[in-house]
Amino acid sequence: DRMQHDGWLEAYLQAELAGLELVIRNQGFTGDRIDHRPRSEGFMTADEYLGLSQADVIFAMFGYNESFDGEPAEFGASLAEWIDDTRVKDYSGRGAPRIVLFSPIAHENLNDPNLPDGRDNNARLAAYAEAMEAVARDKGVFYVGLFGPSQRLYQDAASPLTLNGVHLNSDGNRQIAAFIVESLLGTRPNADEADVEAVRQAVLDKNRHWFNRYRATDGNDVWGTRSVLEFTDGQTNFEVLQNELVQLDYMTANRDRVIWAAAAGESIDPD
User: Fold this and answer.
1) pTM value?
2) Interatomic CA distance for residues 205 and 193, integer angstroms
3) Angstrom distance (rounded) from CA 231 to CA 23
4) Dihedral angle sign, alpha carbons of residues 75, 13, 45, 56
5) CB under 8 Å to 266, separation ≥6 — which residues?
6) 146 in Cβ contact with 9 (< 8 Å)
7) Which residue among 15, 21, 189, 193 is least packed, with the fewest CB closer than 10 Å?
8) Chain centre to alpha carbon of residue 179
9) Closest CA to 84 of 74, 96, 75, 95
10) Which among 116, 59, 117, 52 has a CA at the least distance from the CA of 86?
11) How far is CA 61 from CA 27, 111, 179, in A?
12) CA 164 to CA 4: how far, in whole Å?
């Protein structure tokens, strides 16, 4: 969820893969678990949103919220079930999506008396990362372990990489994003820093529009119980606000082109 506010992962991927015209939509949602995703009434399901985005690759980042249960085996079973269920879906019209699993990051000890040192948290997270890796191996799914690498990044960093031990700050997101890109592509990001920043600013603009669509303000008017209220000529909130969502879809897609142009070293304005 928080990655969208810094934009580093998409910026690096777009810069390194310029010309491929990647379409990336962050569907992270704070509090989600692999088998429980609380939403307001009427909110589109995860499957519906993946279909809207025509997803053919899914980066799945789960395990942190689940770790508080202390049941890594149960988590592994739920994860395996989700993989099996996802592999029979066709969100893009081109067949089943490819899946990449990412383990949770480690808890950073900030040596702050007002915050936990993360020792207990890391014991649980390590067990969940192991469970995820085992499922990935069993299911033949590409796996990126972030637990151990994030610990090494914390040790080498000159300043903290998290806000509170568990949520990455901008530099933390930058370093984790660089590691992810290396894990996926086999090489460290090597695009010019200024070029990457131009791409990142375009990504952040696109993300703002997507967020306002995906996490629409006052979702109860858009999807929920107030969406059926009628006003002038019998129009409902739902009828009017669905058109707003369509406009945001177009505005978001128009900004993909700005990102692709920036990755190619060009600067254009969104239509």
Assistant:
1) 0.95
2) 19
3) 37
4) negative
5) none
6) no
7) 193
8) 15
9) 96
10) 59
11) 10, 27, 15
12) 18
Contact criterion met (CB below 8 Å) for 57 and 98: yes
Which is nearest to 107 in space by CA: 116, 99, 98?
A: 116
Identify the sign of the CA torsion 162, 163, 167, 171.
Answer: negative
- The two tokens of residue 180 are 């992810």
Cβ atoms of 144 and 180 within 8 Å: the answer is yes
Residue with tokens 């000159």: 158
Indicate the burial class of 227 (C-beta count within 10 angstroms; 0-12, 13-18, 19 or more).
buried
Q: In angstroms, how far is the first alpha carbon of the chain from the final one?
A: 27
**Count of all residues that appear for the chain in the document:** 271
pLDDT at position 7: 97
Tell me the one-letter amino acid at 173.
Answer: N
Long-range contacts of 48-55 (CB under 8 A, 24+ apart): 49/214, 50/89, 50/91, 50/97, 51/91, 52/249, 53/23, 53/25, 53/27, 53/91, 54/23, 54/91, 54/92, 54/93, 55/25, 55/91, 55/92, 55/97
Q: E strands along 16-141, which residues?
A: 57-61, 98-102
d(CA 99, CA 50): 13
Rg of the chain over CA atoms, in angstroms?
20
Residues 199-234: tens digit of each pLDDT:
999 999 999 999 999 998 888 999 999 999 999 899
Mean per-residue pLDDT for 52-60? 97
